[in-house]
Each structure stands twice: as structure tokens, then as C-alpha cells.
């Protein structure tokens, strides 16, 4: 059954390549009935949180992300918010919802980065130098992403979070988004699993009513959210081979990707996609026909399915 696209839940995490803006086009292309939904690269979970399935498996190889999502799922909402408020107060970060911008000698147009910069860097250093993994550091990680530039998530080759300070803070809009997300994951039979797509044992999850969704890093774009494990041609082929194997087992799948962007073409994907159905999406759409190419951005974004 397809989720009501008028009531979509937005992830409280801003992952590069997040699919929230495309959900109204993607979700109607999914199978009508899904028993077990498996998302191999869940990221901020914009897709998984909005899928209607009896069981939802969200997989990612980013440990801080999976820890955080599990904390949102398993901890009480009051405890989550109280810990975030505690961290904001501890580091003396801005709280514009409570005090406004003038209190910090800032204006909305230029943001809060001047006030928060040194405080944010202290928080970031404390997170990067942590000696243990626990609920407090999960919330520290989330708070850090909220105060980071454009709320982006990125780690360097040494596993250190390296996004600079941003202009915004934990305002009322962000609070509501987090609250709705927590409420939704507590309602669903959803599981967050730390794993790599190459190691997933599909036999653990799959039956004839299962559906696998893959939204990997794109081979021909420069994703900034993770500099540790760059996506390359070898990983591209590995994923496509996995999807071919699923097809042979009559398991339905959908792959989000781009065939072309900024003059670059993914020839590997273009050739592989000829075996399946290619649905063209429009990232900058406005009640548009998603079967047409997004010519303005020279970006050919697609959902490739085997059904």
C-alpha cells in the first residue's frame, strides 16, 4: 500500500542526496503491497519512514547514524528532547526560538554562525574525541548536525566530523520535524541495522513479498557526506550484480540514481538499465510529469525497477 503523499514525514537529518523532494514521484512507483521493505542505503531515512510495509529494514554503514536512529526509536521522546536542551545549554549555543536573534546580536538574514562558531567547534571537538559510545553522544551527534553548515553530515578519512558551523539552530521548525519523525518510527515495525550492502544476508529478510530499495552514492557526482569510503566503479558493479541476483530470485527492487549530470554520463548504469524499466524523475518538479527528463538542470534522475 502506498503512503499518503499529503502526509509525508521529513527526516530530521539532512543527508546529501536525500529523497524527500522526490517522494511524491517515487512512492507511487513502488509495489502496492510490501511485506518486508529493505533500504540498503537508508541515510536520513526519508524513504523508509514513509513506506507502508509490514516490516521495514533500514541499513547503512555509518555507525553514528544507525546509533542515532536507534536512539530515536528506543528512547522516550521526553528524554531525547531534554538531553538536546541540556547540550545546548551546556555549550551555551543559541536558542533563537526562546530568545530570538537580537539577543545574540544577530539577524535572521545572516544567521547565528558568528555567535555559535567557537561554541560549536568545542562541541565538535568533544564529539570527535569521545572515548565511548552512548546515548548522550548520540544526542551530541544530532545537536552537532543541527548547528552545522546546512545541517550536513560528513566525516573525513579519520572518521572525524568536519562540517563547519552553520547559520541556524534548534528552532521551532526543527523541533517539530524531529518530534513528528520520532512519533512515526515508534508506530512502525522499523529496524535500523549497521551493515554494508555487500555483506547483507538477504536470506534473513526476503520472501516473495519483499521489496529492496537502493539509493547508493552516485558514481558521477561528488557526494560530500562521506570521504572515507568513496563510491567507485567496483562498488557500482557489486551493487548492480546484487540487484541482478535479486531479479533472478523474483524479488522486486528499485534503484535510485542518475544517468547523466553536468555533462557526465554513467555508461555502466546506462547499459545495465536496458534490462529493466527506467522511470524518469524531475527533481525540480511542480505537478510535472515525472516521465520527462529534467532538461533545465541537465540532470537525468531515474528510478530503475525490475517490475
UniProtKB/TrEMBL annotation:
By its UniProt entry, which Gene3D superfamilies does this protein fall under?
A: Adenine-specific Methyltransferase, Domain 2 (1.10.1020.10), Vaccinia Virus protein VP39 (3.40.50.150)
GO terms for biological process, alphabetical: DNA restriction-modification system; methylation; mismatch repair
* Reactions catalysed: a 2'-deoxyadenosine in DNA + S-adenosyl-L-methionine = an N(6)-methyl-2'-deoxyadenosine in DNA + S-adenosyl-L-homocysteine + H(+)
Provide an example Pfam family for this protein: MethyltransfD12
Per UniProt, what is one GO molecular function of this protein?
Answer: site-specific DNA-methyltransferase (adenine-specific) activity
Q: What EC number(s) does this enzyme carry?
A: 2.1.1.72
Extract the SUPFAM superfamilies matched here: S-adenosyl-L-methionine-dependent methyltransferases
Keywords of the record, alphabetical order, are: Methyltransferase, S-adenosyl-L-methionine, Transferase
The family annotation for this protein states: Belongs to the N(4)/N(6)-methyltransferase family.
Name of this chain's protein: Site-specific DNA-methyltransferase (adenine-specific)
